[in-house]
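TICKET: design request
STATUS: open
ATTACHED STRUCTURE:
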């Protein structure tokens, strides 16, 4: 005949206080890591979106220069340095705030009319290094000329350049 094991009475079913605390600490650590990664990728996405907009502005500038050259109005190219780059696009970029003399709230693009600079004021600046300067990114149209051999100057480069150096990630 098989011997039966006695039923163990008095054993607690469930978690002890130590097990509960350990489980809560592990869940808390996982949540903290997840939130930190969320903010990291959110800032990375903001940087990528900003770079995509800068490339759209550069392409708009190139198309505008090509239009002026094709219509034999190259004397108007120098005016592009003082023109709002959003006017070269079919529609403004997401987060476009307009033309301002002083910076508005962070998280969008605006055109600084006194300095003729296109400015991006990022929302997430944890990994942005502007060298101690303001936490916005400023861009300006740069036109570079070279002698064309007939005594005049020919446009060599038309681009949108950062006004001051920055690193973002």
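STATUS: resolved
RESOLUTION: sequence designed for all positions
ATTACHED SEQUENCE:
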């Amino acid at each position: 005949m098989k011997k039966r094991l006695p039923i163990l009475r008095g054993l607690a079913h469930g978690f002890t206080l130590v097990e509960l605390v350990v489980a809560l600490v592990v869940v808390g650590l996982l949540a903290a890591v997840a939130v930190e990664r969320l903010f990291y990728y959110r800032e990375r996405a903001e940087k990528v979106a900003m770079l995509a907009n800068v490339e759209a502005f550069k392409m708009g500038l190139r198309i505008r220069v090509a239009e002026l050259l094709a219509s034999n109005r190259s004397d108007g190219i120098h005016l592009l340095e003082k023109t709002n780059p959003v006017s070269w696009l079919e529609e403004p970029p997401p987060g476009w705030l307009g033309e301002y003399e002083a910076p508005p709230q962070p998280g969008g693009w605006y055109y600084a009319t006194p300095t003729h600079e296109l400015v991006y004021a990022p929302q997430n600046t944890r990994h942005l290094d502007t060298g101690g300067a303001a936490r916005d990114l400023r861009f300006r149209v740069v036109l570079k000329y070279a002698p064309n051999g007939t005594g005049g100057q020919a446009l060599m480069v038309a681009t949108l350049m950062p006004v001051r150096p920055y690193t973002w990630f």
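CLOSING REMARK: The first helix runs from residue 17 to 70. Residues 46-168 form one domain.
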